[in-house]
Protein 1
Amino acid sequence: MSLPPQGSGATSSRFPVLALDRVAQLLGGWTGEGGRVNFAPGQSSFDVWQAIGEPPPVLPPGLIGRYGDLNGSLVLREAIGRRMSQRLGGRIGADQICITNGGSEALMLALHLLLPPGGELLMPRSCYPGYRPLHLFFGAARHLLPLRPDLNVDIDAAEAALRDRPQVLLVNSPSNPFGSVLSAADLQRLGRLPIPVIFDEVYQPLPLDGEPVPSAASLTDRHFIVGSFAKSLAVPGLRLGFLVSPPHLAEEIVNIKALVSVCSSLAAQHVLEFLLERWDLLEAAHQAHLRGCLQHFRDVCGHIGLPLMAEPRAGLFATVALGTSGRHAAGPLREACPSPDAEGVRAAGEDRSLAVALELAGRHGIGVVPSTDFQDAGASFLRLNFSVPRSQVEPGLVRLQRCLTGLGVLAAQDPRLN
């Protein structure tokens, strides 16, 4: 088998470059007045060490010179199991938990076990960009499910999509990009499906309205849960998450972990053990930080007339809808796209968010994530991280509103995807 030629469309079409990365590259080269304003990152501005009031623990040198347990630190696994069992209504033992290299590895471990070649991965039509090519790693098909008006996956459609072939459902609640939350009744209904479900709950510990976010913890006798400390405690550099598996499948997950990455960093797990001794304090402080960030962000948007597409209930993100009329088909937006025949036409059609995002980054120093990263088709929107440093929010949103108005793409109302 020969390798595809360098730069060929064969590889780029299967695993395309995310628009987020293109935006970051353009933004990095911007040197205009006012400085860069980046609403694109997928991480919180919460400072975990400031919240603790002390520095990270000293790292024992021996942790760097050896491998750890395949499924991770027992201290961490017991702490996660206790917390999920006590707070979320499950009965989760340490043996069901595998410490992973972020939530992404947890997803891959579960899919390695559940999704055979020729199978089918079901997921929401609009979802975290990392989901969209996952089926390609396994030689499987992908089935996109519509969203309800509340921007959660349509469970009726999931039930109607069931086939005789092997299937796996991947659900993100709270969701990225919308911060929408499935109810406890929704989760129970999904749990009754006759196929395995992977519940991605990386934003579950980060409610924005003071109300606890429902979890699928009571369903782990049959289904899987993904968590991530990169999100819940704002420590993405540790690259630590976890996978909760049904008891009868936990050993197989560990066997796969041994082949995929051997183990997660002992040094990172040592730091996380230190942090989890203060888990309640840190989680509460992070929630309060995000609620304050969202309130400030919402106040500024209301003052300047920048309508949000939906009210996020958890997580880090807000979405701004793009209008369906205006001057988007010509002028600045066509020039913003390096390939007018491809992306410029797309911008003038159903989803013009990529062209808008490239224009904002390259010519105005504003970083946003376009809806093309989250969906193949649908209403155009931009995802913004409302938890960026507060000093950037008002000047950044004012500049964004001015640019969108000038381009003629600011939505007059809040359209939904369906």
Protein 2
Amino acid sequence: MNDLIAGNLTCLTGTLGRAFSAEKIRAVVAGPNSKDFHIKFPNAAAYSIPAADSAPFREVMATFRFEAVIYLATREDHLLEGGSRVTAEGLDSLRNMLEFSRAEGVKRFFLISSTEVYGDGEDTA
């Protein structure tokens, strides 16, 4: 079985990868900084491609025929640090992952998030 981990790879990636490895599930980690995670567990592969980049991500999706996709949401302040272009790429990434998952017949899609992703909730008006 193959599972994909994508999105904000700075959180949970190692923990999920090790858990998948223990269960003999192939973990594929894909994102713009995936090579930063010196993947050192069996049954793992890493691809340094952003999910907003349609063609390479579509190829990875078709190659591995994933049972599940785990998308780790990016905190709002991380998106805003790069301005509106980065925010748009974050939204494009999530939309692409949902569309590719549907097109490839992925059975399960998990969006992992927290209230931290949606900002601090302070009323600025």
Protein 3
Amino acid sequence: VFKTSSHAPRFYQVDNVKWVVGSHNTYEKIASSSATLRSQIIIHLENGIPFQPQTGDGIIFNDANTLDLIMSQIPKQYLRSPKEIITGSSWWYRDFGNFLFVRNYLLDRYKIKFSDVDLNLGYAIAEGRQESNELSLDKSGDLYIRLLQSAAGDKIQILGLDISTQSKRNNFAWIHIGQYTAGTKFKIITDGQINIINAFAVVPSNEMSRISTQVLNELNQLKPSSHTSDLIPVSYIQESPTSYKVQVQEPNKWLVFSESFDAQWELIDSKTGKILTPVPAYDMLNGYYVSDIGEYLLKYKPQKYVLTGSLISLITLVLTAIIWQVSKYAKK
């Protein structure tokens, strides 16, 4: 049994966010700065979160660069799993649910401490010098590949480009291959102890330009904040385990609901009816950016289906009892 010496309240507000790009060992690296953890929410953009910084927010490039930030904002429709693309008996694959196996395998066999996410796309893994079958993609545009750069890597060759995978980074990195025309055949050749490909992306040039411009504009407007205040308390009434009334007293701040993250916890503005959906604050709690003060309703969306199901069950029970009684007397 574990007991914490202190814990956060069920609801509280903080001033701003630390947006994180890269490896998920962020907490290990900043654990010594308790003020940062208590006054700012940590949000990893690789979790599929839109990069929408507010005044006073900051950004952490954790073994990552600007291209990794831009690619975190690419719509999922442009991403492809390596298992769909790479063929050849020399490669082996793991689905996204096997991330823990891959993490332990790299640590045990190659002494690589790896803590990155796989975007729910899985892994294509090659050990030693390997060559794939002829491959092709069905879309045209800018071609990118997300691969592991590690101390056990060497290089990957694709479409005539030699990409170094030798690095102390021990983390996935996005690499721009160049313009690609749908149907063009190519092979992937690997050198080194181990190489892992996590994703392919083919993005239309105009769409890539739009996303890059938007992300860089947001990045250039970021100004580091020195604010280190403690948590801002929030009063609330628990109507049921799936319903709360929350009184927000501070505008333009992040509201944290200290329950395990679930995208179906909806925060509803009582005055306007506007619905806010959560982002994973600290990767596991529910965070909402609230711009106005006032009363908000927090509801768990699936609960309405439970009530409907209970009503149907009650009606069914009553009808069954009536039928049973009618059948009983009819036999007599």
Protein 4
Amino acid sequence: SEIDRVLADAVNADPSSAPARVARVNYLLATDRAKEALDAALSAQSAIPDDMRVLESLAQAQKANNNFSQAVVTFGKLAALLPRSPGPLIGQAEAYIADKDWIGARGALQKAVALNPNDASNQLFLINTIAGSGQPDAARAAARALQKAQPKSAMGYIAEAGVFSSQGQSAEAENVLRSAMKTVDEPVLAIQLVGLLLRDKRTKDAEAVVSQWTEKHPKDQTVRLAVAEASLSAKNFELSSRMYRSLLRGAPDDPVFMNNLAWALGQTGDPEALSLAVKAAAKAPSNPAILETLGQLQLSAGESAKAIQTLTKATELAPANAVLRLSLARAHAKLGQKNEARAQIEIIRNLIAPATVRQDADALLKTL
């Protein structure tokens, strides 16, 4: 409420200030108040009709309100003001896609690519859009054209593999990536191949790719780290544990690797988890995320008083982090400390927090 008041005062103090108006729109969007954000953006456009920053914020507010056709028009106005920038065209393409207008998206992306033909990421977006519009043959042709134009870039091969994968042709996608890895020495190809193999439940084959890459590039941690993080997010804790152990062998004092290994092991009930978390916290005592892991594992191990102390310290280090406060609230709730849990939930309600965190906090409140 205090931030709301200050931003409103800023707009009232100088209604022609684009930074003040845009800051207010962005804040309202960040706090999941899409309708208020749109009203603020429309008011900003009325006051400053041709300001590029205002138009950008209006387009984003229109998208947040599912007003995709209006967002397309607004991005079009922005593109006219910035005729050499592909950014507004990319935004317009995203709005077209959200509105299921594949032809419009394709047209916008073709213009963006023409402005900067060397930007492979925009070309990849275009190819994926062509595939999404139900034209896989045309998408593959565009991917191969990109390969020919940029033979040392991984993007064209990733695009072709992506088209095959979207059609359920995993074997063909795998062949493209393995073939590309023979001539293009980029870790992203290995990461894409590992991801494909894991989606097909071929864990051993995926680990073999990681091992081959590591043997060829012993100092490069990119592939192992990507696989470790992805498998941790996917709750494949056994694979994640093996990857983080491998990373720790190359960097035995890295507290983040220790912390993430501790978390993965903790999810499988491995008793080593808590001791690793203690070591990680000793090396990074001011890292709130590492302290959160330690607190959670202490709670699981029955060390309730230590857990509350650790999680409290984490929130003191990052008082505006709603995720940490939710962890502390859950710890209080688990110990029957309902008033303390409610206090943390009340703080969360006054923070900028993801919608999922707010929903989880509300669900926890109902159990108290």
